[in-house]
Amino acid sequence: MRYKIVAGNWKMNLNQNQATQLTHDINKYLSNNNLPKQIKVVIHPPAPYLANCVNYISEDNNTTFGVGGQNCYTQASGAYTGETAPEMLKDIGCQYVLIGHSERRKYFNESHDFLAEKVNKALETRLTPIFCCGEALEIREAGTHEAHVETQLRESLFHLSKDDFSKVIIAYEPVWAIGTGVTATPDQAQDMHAALRKLIANQYDSNIAENTTILYGGSCKPANAESLFSQPDVDGGLIGGASLKADSFTEIISIMMKCLAS
Ligand code: PEP
């Protein structure tokens, strides 16, 4: 099902009090603003705060507001010191998990195959994977960005059945735009999202492609959210820096509501 999603990736930021306060503030905003059912709001707090953040989501918001891990492992349990099983995320009330963020690919050398295993395990556990893809600057400059992102999907997602693929959310995040303040232009985002949808249609079918939620990520903030979210193939954003403050994150949610209404 294709949703409009505003997701916040908090990365390795905030302390427990700040994480609690931010969740509380977003929850309050959602309680005071009736969001259309097509819009979902997701936060990805650091692992130690996940359970606490889940508890700050009030009952009236629990179909709109979800929590996700920033990462997960490929096994359910065992001698894997330092890892978090998808089952554990599920157990504490998470609904989503980020897989393949460029920082995981870069600093932890996560390969296509490893990411494919994580996707499989997340789906088996009934977590919704938010699968991140995107090219580095030199790839964009060489003009091979579409082929690069195609390989990322082909190697880590296209083994999935139609049924399983339709449960995955994709986040296109050009690496050169993450945390840099440089945002893809609305046309650059739209072109890549349209290319992804075409690729999915060729691999699966046009119905699956039309129903895939594809988010944009990379220096998305209140000042540029409207121009990005109003692109026909951009279904929302994965927000890093601007998700760490309640006022900027809720402003992005309000922009999403405005775009959906217009
Ligand atoms: C991210 O890390 O997923 C991200 C998009 O970060 P930022 O919004 O800070 O560029």
Q: What labels describe this entry?
A:
8 strands; binds phosphoenolpyruvate; eight-stranded parallel β-barrel; TIM Barrel; 15% strand; alpha/beta; 262 residues; globular
Order of helices and strands: EHEHEHEHHEHHHEHHEHEH
N-C termini distance: 21 Å
Work out the strand percent: 5-15%
Which value, in Å, is the CA radius of gyration?
A: 17 Å
Low-confidence stretches: none
- Briefly, what CATH class? Alpha Beta
Helix and strand content put the structural class at alpha/beta
List all distinct small molecules, including ions and cofactors, that are bound in this structure: phosphoenolpyruvate
CATH architecture field: Alpha-Beta Barrel
Structural description of this entry:
By secondary structure, this protein is of the alpha/beta class. The protein has one domain (4-261): TIM Barrel. The chain contains twelve helices and eight strands. It has helices at residues 16-32, 50-55, 86-91, 102-107, 112-124, 137-142, 145-156, 162-165, 186-203, 206-210, 222-229, 246-261, and strands at 4-9, 39-44, 65-69, 96-99, 128-133, 169-172, 214-217, 236-239. The chain has an eight-stranded parallel barrel, surrounded by six helices. Helix 11 (222-229) runs parallel beside helix 12. The longest helix is centred in the C-terminal third of the chain and has 18 residues, at 186-203. The protein is globular, with a radius of gyration of 17 Å. The structure holds phosphoenolpyruvate (PEP).
